[in-house]
Amino acid sequence: MDYNNVLEEWRSSLEGVYRERCLSSFKAGTPIDLPPRQIWVVYRGLVQLSTVHAQGEEILLGIAAPSMPFGLPLTNLYPYYALALTEVNLMNLGIAEIEDSPKLCQGLFWYLVHRHQQTEALLSVANYRLVEERLRHFLWLLKQELGQTVSQGERLPLRLTHQHIANAIGSTRVTVTRLIGRLQEEGSLIIDPDRYLILTPKFDPQ
């Protein structure tokens, strides 16, 4: 089975559904309600998925990009949070609706596979002993998932605070701020006027 063809069919199926209903919009920084029997699909924008550690620390589980599904029926974690990282438009699908559509089921499966791979990659970042290694590999993962080519390198189209990054790599905000400054000094990273991170050709995840 051709993976790209399956995803294209999934997108085509979604486009047909999009035309038949209204989308829900959320501003950047807005929590997204998660109904127990419904799944959100991202039409436009980026959504942060996270949970909270027993000690109260937020743990990044993944980032849902356009066409990606998320919601309570797709996780056993509690608590489970979704936050609009950018302005987002979402489509709501009921479980029964997905079960009645073979194309939606097939497409959903492959996007869930991708989400699973993304989560594994985030977990693997924690295996690096040095915080700088974890930071570099986390930024590299974001580049692979979301990078947008610009004249200076690869732009990450989301504004993650230093605290967000610290939570994702198991460090502190102060340490992340220091290490980002080091990456800027060596020319591996640029912060553009809109506060987006750009990884330059000098950036090395190692």
How does this structure look, described?
This protein has 206 residues and is an alpha+beta fold. The protein has 2 domains: 3-125, Jelly Rolls, CATH 2.60.120.10; 131-199, Winged helix-like DNA-binding domain superfamily/Winged helix DNA-binding domain (Arc Repressor Mutant, subunit A), CATH 1.10.10. Helices cover 40% and strands 24% of the residues. The chain contains 6 helices and 11 strands. It has helices at residues 3-18, 95-99, 102-125, 131-146, 162-169, 173-185, and strands at 24-26, 38-44, 47-52, 58-64, 69-70, 81-84, 88-94, 148-150, 153-156, 189-191, 197-199. The strands form 3 sheets. A 4-stranded antiparallel β-sheet has the order 1-7-2-5. Strands 8-9-11-10 form a 4-stranded antiparallel β-sheet. It has a 3-stranded antiparallel β-sheet with strand order 4-3-6. A hairpin with a 5-residue loop joins strand 3 (47-52) and strand 4 (58-64). Helix 1 crosses helix 3 (102-125), helix 4 crosses helix 5 (162-169) and helix 5 crosses helix 6 (173-185). The longest helix has 24 residues, at 102-125. The mean pLDDT is 85.
